[in-house]
Amino acid sequence: MIIDRAEVILTSPDRNFVTLRITTDDGLTGLGDATLNGRELAVVSYLEEHVVPLLIGRDAARIEDTWQFLYRGAYWRRGPVTMAAIAAVDMALWDIKGKAAGMPVYQLLGGASRDGLLAYGHASGRDLPELFDSIRSHLEQGYRAIRVQTGVPGLRSIYGIASNATSEENTGVRYDHEPAQRGALPHQEDWDTGAYLRHVPTVFEAVRGEFGPELPLLHDAHHRLTPTQAARLGRSLEPFDLFWLEDCTPAENPEALRLVRGHTTTPLAIGEVFNTVWDYQQIIREQLIDYVRSAVTHTGGITHLRRVLDYAALYQIKSGMHGPTDISPVGMAAAMHLGLAVHNFGIQEYMKHGARTDAVFQQSFTWRDGYLHPGEKPGLGVELDPDESGKYPYVRAYLPYNRLADGTVHDW
Ligand code: CS2
Ligand code: MG
What we know:
Layout: E1 3-11, E2 17-24, E3 29-33, H1 40-55, H2 63-72, H3 80-101, H4 105-108, E4 117-125, H5 128-140, E5 146-150, H6 168-171, E6 181-182, E7 188-190, H7 193-211, E8 217-220, H8 227-237, E9 244-246, H9 255-263, E10 268-270, H10 277-285, E11 291-292, H11 301-313, E12 318-321, H12 329-341, E13 345-349, H13 355-360, E14 361-362, E15 366-368, E16 371-373, E17 383-384, H14 386-389, E18 397-398, E19 401-403
Parallel strand pairs: 4-5, 4-13, 5-8, 7-19, 8-9, 9-10, 10-11, 11-12, 12-13
Antiparallel strand pairs: 1-2, 2-3, 4-16, 6-18, 14-17, 15-16
C-alpha cells in the first residue's frame, strides 16, 4: 500500500469542489474533500505544490503518522488552508484503509453507536407564510429537525434565505441561499442588529404556535452579535426551546461565550470556522458550548475531528458537524462515518446537493425518515466519475458580505 499517485481534482457541478484522489501501488484509490468555500484555489495550490510531493512513496496504511508528519513536520501550523489539505489526505487514507479491509470506515472507527444520524435541514423565508411553507416542505422531505432563518423587516437581503435567491437560468449568475456566488466580486448584503434582535423571537413564537413544541428548531446568527446582544437573544429565545443557537458571536473570541453562557440556558453551537483542537481547547474545558460545529473537511480530517470529539465527550459536549452544500459528498460521507461511530453524536447538518453534484460523486449513503446512514460499501462509499467532473470547470466564486446602513463593514 505505497502511495503511487495523488491528484487534485477541481470541479464545479453546482458549486466548486476540491477533491484529492490518492492511488496506491496495488491499485486502491481513496478520496478526500478539501473544499474551502470561496478560497478553493488556495488549497489546490497548497496540496499540489507542498503536500502531494511528500505523499509519493509513503505507506498509505500509516494514517496517524502521515497526519503528524503533515501537521508537525511543517513549520507553519493550523489555519483553514493547511487543515483542509491535511483533512483531504486523512480522508483519502481512511477510504483506502476501508477498501483494503473490505469494511466501511465507521467499522474501523469502532463500529456503529446508533442506527442512523438525526439530520437537520435549512428552512427559511422572507416572511412567515414563506417560512411556514419552507418548514412544511422540509417536513415532507422527511426532516425531523429544522434550522429556521428569517428575513428581517427593513433589510433587503439576508444570508441563508432561500427565496432571496435568483436562479442561474434566469440571471446567468448562480445565487443559491448558502452560496459562494459565481461572479467577479462578492455580493453586498445589508444588516441591522437591532431590527434582527426585535424580530427573531417573534418568528420563533409564531413557528412554535404553528408547528407545536416538539419539533427540534435551530438558528444560526452567523457571528454577527456582540456578547451582550447574543446573551439577550439567547434569553429571548428560551421560551421556544431551541435545539441550539449557532455562532452567536465571532468565533475568535472564546471569552465572549462566558458572558453569553452566564445569561442564557439556550444551548450554544460553535466551530464551523475552527480548524484544530486548540481552537476548541478553552471553550470545551470551560464548557462554554454544547455542540462542536466542525466539519471533517475543515478540521484536519477524521483523525483530528475524532480527537476534538473525544475531548468534548469529557464535558458532555456533542457533535453537530457542519454539512452545508460546500462540504462535498466526500466530506459528508466522512462526517457520516465519524458521526455513526462516536458516542457523543448530537445532530448532523444536511443540505442536499444538486443533481449535477450527485452525478459527479456516486454515493452510497441513505436518507430515511430524517436519519442519514453512510452505507456499507468499503471505505467512505463515494466514487468520483471523471467524465462528469471534467464537464464542469472551476468558476471563481465569493461568499457575500454585509454592511450597516452607514456603510460600515459588519461581522460575517
Ligand atoms: C452556514 C454555512 O451551514 C451553516 O451553518 O453557516 O452555510 C456557511 O455559511 C458556509 O458553509 C460558508 O462556507
Ligand atoms: Mg453556520
